[in-house]
Amino acid sequence: VVQVFDLSSNSFNGTLPVSLIQNLAEGGNLISFNVSNNSFVGHVPVSNFCVGVHKNSSLRFLDFSSNDFDGAIETGLGGCSKLEKFRAGFNVLSGNIPIDIYDAVSLIEISLPLNKIDGTIGD
């Protein structure tokens, strides 16, 4: 069972396959997911890790940094109760930081530099 999934610093592009994320998350043993420093596009698929049947109780680290992800950060991070670090800086993310991110009780780092995020923090 995969616990650490790291594709960082490669030349991947396109969208992240939802089926891949769902398969990794469904096992419930995934601790770390890192796809930083690639050229992935689309939205950051938070809900596929933290919501419903795909909720992963072991996940501690999510890193989507330095890609071309865009749009708003999905709600759902609050469902990852053991999540400690969420990184999605150096993308083209916009909109508000979802309020449920503060429900992730183990979260010690939120890193979102160099995006287009706006609005009120905590709304």
Automatic annotation (TrEMBL):
Gene3D superfamilies: Ribonuclease Inhibitor. One of its GO terms (cellular component) is membrane. Its main location: membrane. The keyword Signal applies. It is a single-pass type I membrane protein. It is found in: Membrane. InterPro entries: Leu-rich_rpt, LRR_dom_sf, Plant_RL_S/T_kinase. Keywords: Receptor, Signal. The keyword Ribosomal protein does not apply. PANTHER family: LEUCINE RICH REPEAT FAMILY PROTEIN, EXPRESSED. This is Uncharacterized protein. It comes from Pisum sativum.
